[in-house]
Amino acid sequence: MDRIQSFFKNPIFILSKKNPFMLSRWSILYVLLGLFAGVFSAVFWKVLEFLTKLLAGFQGHYIILIMTLSGLGIGLLIYFLGEPGEISLVIDNIRFRGGKLDPKNNPSMSLSSLLSISSGGSAGPEAPLVQITGSFGSWFAEKIGLEGEELRSMTIAGMAAGFTSLFGSPLGGALFALEILQHRHVVEYYEALLPAFLSSCSAYFVFLFMTDMGIGPTWEFPQYVPGGIEDFQYAIGFGMAGAAVGWIFYGIFKITKFSFSKMALPIFVKTTIGGLLLGCIAYYEPLTRYFGHDQLNEIVVTKGNWIFFGTLALLKILAINITVSSGWRGGIIIPLFFVGAVAGRFFMDFFPSENESFLLICLMASVNASVTKTPISTTILLTGLTGVSNFTPVLFASLSGYFLSPKAPFISSQADSV
């Protein structure tokens, strides 16, 4: 208590307390947290870009070699630096440990995820950023003596800042950080909503300033032209198709998770096996390599029939689940968007549409909502990432994918929430 009292005696906080506006000392704390998270996220992204360009030079059979060696390196990092945890552990800590995330896992998570993502694993940087920046919030809160819901809100604000930095959507990032912690289909920690928005906005500003990313859409989709009531009918149908893909994803996950869990081997052996398998898949189909951030634009213009896109979707689903199950580190949101876009191209051969981008976006939303159980924030995120002007029909697809998804969740700590 003495620490927090002395902290708030700072002239900045005294001034904020006496100002006639809604700005408060708490607002300043959340903005400061977002600024710090934005700096870290930008540095992480710059390092990731450098490593990716370095390792992308290996082509042909060398892909198998470099991904196998990367798997060994990932496993050794985890073996010597400690288990970095995963999103299920983060959710458990938020819900059952008062929001405390341990920063001691950050070195292992940072290094293993950088190698995992840059070498071509089918997982993205969103999960590492969420966990690391969330632990910043937790550490910051403890240092100034916060407890209870105030500490939890600071941790969630840190998570939202990391997520927003990558996706460029303060609204979507804040909602995702809350929705993924869901309890019985609602945002449980609503008191953290404004803190999450504040930290997200400041993190996004810093991230844009330090990187060369613009504020336009990430993926260059043809603009969706809204129609009539039939758009909602199509959206529900596409949502059902996305849910079917989600069931396939979950089935393959159960197989890969069971297979690797039964291996009584050190972590570095499992990650090496995972790297070998991922390398073989990437050698056969290069579009399965990496987490899909750049590859998704290629899907929009790639020529192919339903056999090609159906095979690509299955191989990408397999690659994502091998990445996760073998111990490689990273997040699955952008990879799931990639799977949804590929599935959209698959269904185009059977259900031709004048609004092809609408079909793709609906499948992207429903597949991700089916697996991550985040239908609301998924819709908001896709609005910014694809530049869609009318997202209401997409919400129908997202909700359809969510409610028709497997009750047993991919993220195990959501099991009592659905």
Automatic annotation (TrEMBL):
Transmembrane regions: 28-48, 60-81, 156-181, 193-212, 232-253, 265-284, 304-324, 331-348, 380-404
The keyword Cell cycle belongs to this UniProt entry's keyword annotation: no
One annotated GO molecular function: chloride transmembrane transporter activity
Keywords: Membrane, Transmembrane, Transmembrane helix
CDD domains per UniProt: Voltage_gated_ClC
Coarse class of the protein's main subcellular location: membrane
Membrane topology reported for the UniProt record: Multi-pass membrane protein
Superkingdom classification of source: Bacteria
InterPro entries: Cl-channel_core, ClC, ClC-type_chloride_channel
Gene Ontology CC, one term: membrane
Compartments reported by the entry: Membrane
Coiled-coil intervals, chain numbering: none
Pfam families reported in the protein's UniProt record: Voltage_CLC
Protein name stated in the entry: Chloride channel protein
